[in-house]
Amino acid sequence: MNPEPGIYTGTLRHRRFRPRPHQFSYKLFMAWLDIDRMPEQMASTPFTAYNRFAWASFLERDHFGDPGLSLRERIIEDAALHGVLLPEGPIYLLTHLRYLGYCFNPISFFYCYRPDGSLDSVLAEVNSTFGETRNYWLTERNREASENTFRYRCPKTMHVSPFMGMDLDYEFVLTQPGKSLVAHMNTLEAGGSGLFDATLALEHRPWNAGNVGLALARHPFMTAKVVGAIHFEALRLLIKKNPVFNHPDRIKPVIQEVPKRL
After folding, report:
1. How confident is the model at residue 1 (pLDDT cuts 50, 70, 90)?
2. Is residue 1 part of a domain?
3. Euclidean distance between CA atoms 82 and 168, whole angstroms
4. Is the pTM of this model over 0.70?
């Protein structure tokens, strides 16, 4: 069964294996939200709010689609566009909130459950520092055989990091959310060799003023910390002289001149 609304605290680790090894990790927390009870959940502590400014707030416009629609409506609409039929079960969102008016989510996960409480599918909403977003549906169609985890593979379709090209696959390895949660992503080159991976290893805490207040006291500027880490580590990669890949939209096409006839 899916855990009740709360927060997940733990660590994020990034590892790059080639061409020059590089890794880092830092502590963080993320919100675990019932998308159908968002206003009530955010109003239940003095530190959080729904669709308005607070120390930590959830704004509908911080996620994909028309913010005039409910998140469930947007998820169902996006699922239909991708040929995914969702059951009428609860949907939980693992995400960063907006802290002191600032929000950036490298990745958010929507866990879509069946009415019996079993996990049906997961939507990974990926955002880049270039202001772009892309949804990856993780369903039975792209699930790979695995006994103890949910393992999915899909092609990369959005430029995220200037230190990785586009001809790559993502492999998502997820555990069943519960008292603990692991979300692991491998970035694979042709042939399946690993270029990079990222791992969230988290522990669940119930949603209450004490737990939320303690998490905010420890990480008062959570998303600013995330963005700062992204740019600091990018500088380290440059210093290590890792190759840089241009955004595909910024690559000028090569125009070959046609020889003139004499």
Report:
1. low
2. no
3. 20
4. yes
